[in-house]
Automatic annotation (TrEMBL):
SUPFAM superfamilies: P-loop containing nucleoside triphosphate hydrolases
Protein name as catalogued: tRNA threonylcarbamoyladenosine biosynthesis protein TsaE
Gene: tsaE
Organism: Peribacillus psychrosaccharolyticus
Alphabetized Gene3D superfamilies for the sequence: P-loop containing nucleotide triphosphate hydrolases
Keywords linked to the UniProt accession: ATP-binding, Cytoplasm, Magnesium, Metal-binding, Nucleotide-binding, tRNA processing
Length: 150
């Protein structure tokens, strides 16, 4: 599996990077975001939403688990940090197989339910405001996307 690395020096650069990725999405993509609390998963999603021409303000869906936004294509923003075994079946499949773009924060917590092909982005805090992004593509369309970005 091929990995690509990028570094941003501040939140604005993260926003710009994510926006650039968002602009290249056509719908049906699944993006898994991994990283500690405060790494920048939600900050990244805000930029991605901008690239999808979402106009509403994107906030963390920690308590709601899933938030939907209308853009050029729909954005489904999930934060599965609080998903427990009991509500395991929240119908994630329908989002993953839908025409929108799905972003999942803490995706490994529902790894059994993730599609085979997806883009996983690991975010590491390497300084106060610097972050390392490691992109890992599973599937041709995601590999292509990584090549265009990096
Ligand atoms: P997560 O969703 O991973 O828990 P958030 O996106 O909510 O994290 O928070 C990231 C925090 O880190 C924000 O307070 C943001 O301002 C700050 N930050 C500082 N530098 C960066 C950067 N380069 N990229 C993203 N966020 C950054
Ligand atoms: Mg978050």
């Amino acid at each position: 599996m091929q990995q690509y690395e990028l570094v941003t020096e501040n939140e604005d650069q993260t926003f710009a990077l994510a926006k650039q990725i968002g602009e290249k999405l056509n719908g049906g993509e699944v993006i898994a975001l991994e990283g500690d609390l405060g790494a920048g998963k939600t900050a990244f999603t805000k930029g991605l939403a901008k690239g999808l021409a979402v106009t509403r303000v994107v906030n963390s869906p920690t308590f709601t688990i899933i938030k939907e936004y209308q853009g050029r294509i729909p954005l489904y923003h999930m934060d599965v940090y609080r998903v427990s075994a009991e509500d395991e079946d929240l119908g994630f499949d329908e989002y993953f197989e839908g025409t929108g773009v799905t972003v999942v924060e803490w995706a490994h917590l529902i790894k059994e339910q993730l599609p085979d092909e997806l883009l996983t982005i690991y975010i590491y805090r390497i300084g106060d405001t610097s972050r390392k992004f490691v992109l890992e593509a599973k599937g041709e369309r995601y590999l292509q996307l990584c090549k265009e970005i990096c």
